[in-house]
Every structure is written in C-alpha cells, then in structure tokens.
Design a protein that fits this description.
two-stranded antiparallel ribbon, 3-stranded antiparallel sheet, about 20% strand, 3 helices, about 140 residues, alpha+beta
Length: about 140
C-alpha cells in the first residue's frame, strides 16, 4: 500500500524516456506543408489550420483576434447557431485561437466524420460575414 504521508521522490525531467510517434511530412500540390502523426489506437482526428495572421500583422490592437473569433459567428449560408449545431451533431469541436505570429482553427472529431465536417470548416474559413447583430438571421442579410 502507498504511504500517502511520504512525498514521492522527485525525478528530473531529463531522466524521462519519452518516445514520440513518427511524423510524416508532405506538401500539397499548392505547396502547403502537411504534418501527420498517425495513431491506430484512436479513431479520432485533429485537423489544425495555421495561418500567418496573428497580432504581428494587425493594423490596430485586437483586430487579428477579433477577426479570428468572429469568423465562426456566421457565413452567407449559415448562422453561428447553425454552424455550432452542424459540428456538434457529429460530436466534433471547432476551436480557434490567435497568437502573436499566427492564428489557428482546430477541428477535433471522429475520423469517420471528417468528410461531413470539412465543408462546414471550409465555409467558416472562406465565407465569414461578420454580422452586426448576434441574431440567427443576421448572417443571411
């Protein structure tokens, strides 16, 4: 039985033997690099799109992060509510972040649903409308 009154020995981080899964790297026809870490144990997928669009590129404070976060608030075809319902229907999660030198959109889903979710992600990235109101119908006006 473990003695909970005695602190465990401290182990230096350099003494850990961490084995990372092999990385596959290739380029798409348009020159975009793709990095893949395959895992046969999980049927999940994380797709992360990284753009050179962080605060370093903004003309005024908070423009980069506001733009990144507002992109998911509606497209010419779907409101924010509809976009969220489309991703949640498949048990997926679409997250976005903005950092100093880049902005990201990350999709977490089951691998078998990626074909159903890619059109929604594409729409969010390529067709945001930045509605002035948060009502569901404002994305279509």
């Amino acid at each position: 039985m473990i003695n909970r009154r005695q602190a465990p020995a401290i182990k230096d981080a350099v003494n850990f033997d961490i084995q990372l899964k092999p990385l596959e790297q290739f380029r798409l026809d348009n020159g975009i690099p793709v990095y893949v870490v395959r895992s046969s144990e999980q049927e999940t997928l994380q797709l992360e799109l990284v753009f050179p669009a962080g605060s370093w590129y903004e003309s005024e404070n908070l423009v980069a992060s506001a733009t990144n976060f507002l992109m998911k608030n509606g497209t010419s075809q779907h409101s924010a509510l509809e976009i969220n319902e489309m991703t949640e229907y498949y048990g997926a999660y679409l997250n976005r972040n903005c950092f100093h030198e880049n902005a990201t959109y990350t999709l977490h889903c089951l691998s078998k649903h990626i074909a159903d979710l890619l059109p929604t992600l594409q729409e969010v990235i390529q067709d945001p409308v930045f509605p002035s109101r948060s009502s569901p119908s404002s994305a279509r006006t």
